[in-house]
Amino acid sequence: MGIVERIQAILAGLFEPEVEENPVVESAYQVLTGTLGVPTDGGYCLKAARIIIEDAFGLPERALYNRLIIPTLKNAEMVPHGEPKYYWASGAETAMRLAGLTVAKPVPGDLLFSGVVSKPYGHVGILLPGELVIENTWASRGWRKTGMGRIRLTPLSEFDPVTTIVSWRRLRDALVK
Hints:
The chain has one domain (3-175). Helix content is 36%, strand content 13%. The protein has helices at 3-11, 23-33, 45-56, 63-75, 89-98, 168-175; strands at residues 111-114, 123-128, 132-136, 151-155, 164-166. Strands 4-3-2-1-5 form a 5-stranded antiparallel beta sheet. β1 (111-114) and β2 (123-128) form a beta hairpin. α2 (23-33) packs across α3 and α4 (63-75) packs across α5 (89-98).
């Protein structure tokens, strides 16, 4: 099945995300259908992922930063790249590693970080069913819906090399208290 057919199947609801409900995948679908707004200008991958995560878990705006990223980095006395870069994907990746939220094998809804290509900023996307990644990127890969700016649906095989996988379940457990 090609990328266009996979996207059409996802948007038509032909893929079941998992047996268990997956609120992250559901919120990502809302972005693709235009019912959840995320930044469409390039360079806002972490902000787009944050909005999806906070929507999925019913959290207030900036909860990902305020409840996890900033406190974890401050407690570890780590400031990525020599100054407070809490709002870069690289800072979020470091914080989530320190918080023990990583797994070896991704499932839909997990965050995929890449610290390889976009140094020092890093990059993050969210895995969807069908081995597709929703991301905010300058890269000209995957599929872009008209009117969605730099939001892309990219085959996992075309995504940047993954350096960290963050479990959506572990992230939920760390954020929802």
